[in-house]
Amino acid sequence: NVISLVGKKPAEIKELISSASKGSVFLVDLSLVKMLQSREKNDEKLIEDYLDAIANGAKFPPGSVVFDPESGILYLVDGIHRAVAHDKAGKEGFTVTIRTGTEAEALLAAGGSNPTHGNKRTAKDKEHARVPVPRHPVLCRSRNNCIAQAAQVRRP
């Protein structure tokens, strides 16, 4: 059972997320989320492949979102290529799982996405995943080992 957040106001979204059972799947659209891209750039070829798959009826696993109840922001931390493909295909939205957390936790989750699955990360992608973490006001106190571990890369 998918819970739709499309067209909902922030207070409604907060209520739906807080009352949902653990592991619930939600329908969101790109206008609802702030994308935290852990890659250097989107892979347009992969998005085109996903568009073809969507046109042929393929179903994709849900993306991952971190919801910050303090700010009301939904951070898309995994599944950006799938989200963009669904948006380009004119779909109402795409499915995600949502967990509660802070912006800092969302940055850590985004930096660590796709280490062993999905589109293989390039060396530039890994470097890009590492960059936002030390610039964050809360996370900047972390040492290199913590940053590398969060981004799931080797320490520089």
Question: Which helices and strands, and how do they pair?
Answer:
Blueprint: E1 2-4, H1 10-19, E2 25-28, E3 33-35, H2 44-55, E4 63-68, E5 73-78, H3 80-88, E6 94-100, H4 103-111, H5 123-130, H6 132-135, H7 144-151
Parallel strand pairs: 1-2, 3-5, 4-6
Antiparallel strand pairs: 2-6, 4-5
Verbal overview:
The chain has a six-stranded mixed sheet with strand order 1-2-6-4-5-3. The protein has helices at 10-19, 44-55, 80-88, 103-111, 123-130, 132-135, 144-151, and strands at 2-4, 25-28, 33-35, 63-68, 73-78, 94-100. The longest helix has 12 residues, at 44-55. The termini are far apart. The chain is globular. It is built from seven helices and six strands. The chain is of the alpha/beta class. Strand 1 (2-4), helix 1 and strand 2 form a beta-alpha-beta unit.
Strand content: 15-25%
Assembly of the depicted chains: single chain
Total helix count?
Answer: 7
Give average pLDDT, whole number. Answer: 79
Describe the largest sheet.
6 strands, mixed
**H-E order:** EHEEHEEHEHHHH
Overall geometry: globular
Structural class: alpha/beta
Radius of gyration: 16 Å
**Annotation, overall tally of beta strands:** 6
